[in-house]
Amino acid sequence: MAPVKLYGDTMSWNVTRCMVALEEAGADYEIVHIDFDTREHKSPGHLARNPFGQVPAFQDGDLYLWESRAICKHVCRKYKPEMLKAGDLEESAMVDVWLEVEAHQYNAALHPIIFEILISPILGGTCDQKVVDENLEKLKKVPEVYEARLTKCKYLAGDFISLADLNHVSATLCLFATPYASVLDAYPRVKAWWDGLVARPSAQKAATLMKPSV
């Protein structure tokens, strides 16, 4: 069977989010580089894979997907459904809850910070410190909730690692490339949780592939 294909640039945390899931699932996959300098992401060929002209895009035989979190879910459903706790109604519901928290609470605050600090200068802009400061205040509220949750269980969805934990890896690696990595230091359980995640081979591979951005 041909490997699945992940299209994008590994300096993108959305691309490496998918890569972490693929690594954890033990999938046979290939990363196909998309060149932003030549605007390959806006080419007809790539638009056929992702109609928004963004990355990642994903190919599994005749199936094409875009949006990183949807790709991650597909990968887990196909190769490692235990990462979603498929088959257990209550546990899978908790995975869903924390997947939503990652997307709409954690990443919603973190994304503007890492964009302003890491991406805007690459694009020729300058860092808007007001945006950074406003979102730092939002971000600081999230690990407070995580700390409380992690007093009750080892991982976010329960005493089992899931995609809800792993989806944090790529963007948090970017946070640690900014001056604000210490935001997690005030939360010992969150820090221990993160230290366990980043020690995993999938996270170490993501960290290597994301350089020089992280």
TrEMBL record:
Key words, A-Z: Transferase
Transmembrane segments: none
Cellular component, GO, one term: cytoplasm
A Pfam family matched in the record: GST_C
Catalytic activity from the UniProt record: RX + glutathione = an S-substituted glutathione + a halide anion + H(+)
Tagged with keyword Transferase: yes
Stretches assigned to the GST C-terminal domain: 88-214
Stated name of the protein: glutathione transferase
Family: Belongs to the GST superfamily. Phi family.
GO biological process, one term: glutathione metabolic process
Native organism: Eragrostis curvula
Domain GST N-terminal span(s) in chain numbering: 2-83
Superkingdom field: Eukaryota
EC code: 2.5.1.18
Listed GO MF terms: glutathione binding; glutathione transferase activity
InterPro entries on file: Glutathione-S-Trfase_C-like, Glutathione-S-Trfase_C_sf, Glutathione_S-Trfase, Glutathione_S-Trfase_N, GST_C, GST_Phi_C, Thioredoxin-like_sf
